Give the backbone structure.
Amino acid sequence: MENLVLDASDKTPFFILKQNGEFQFGGISMPEDAASFYFKIIDWITDYYRTPSKETFITVSFRYLNSSSSSMVLKIFNALKNLQASGKTTVKCTWFYEDGDIDMKEYVDQIKKYADNIAFEVQPKEELSDRVPPILN
């Protein structure tokens, strides 16, 4: 299984999904066809499900999600919730959001409530980049 690395564009987020269990994604997500864009990501996670790393660490840092993207991100977290429930790996997520972005904070809280078996750490950050994971900038 190959790592999946998608660079950000003006309308799509970056994704770095590594077989070693390190997942990073974020930026701006408003693709023309969210289902088509996110299909390859969900497909990769489905493959990862077969032989996951002992621990899976997710770092998320979206600046903006349109409604169709937020629905697809929920599908990603559904897959991760099922992965955690399988007992094959321990899933932990750190989600950065821009300080003061109440809508994003509420969305993160919904994800946390939905994927309640995943350990979440939610952190405000003064500013997020559209293209660089927060642990690198």
Residues 4-125 form a domain with the Transcription Regulator spoIIAA fold (CATH 3.30.750). The chain has one domain: 4-125. The longest strand covers residues 55-65.
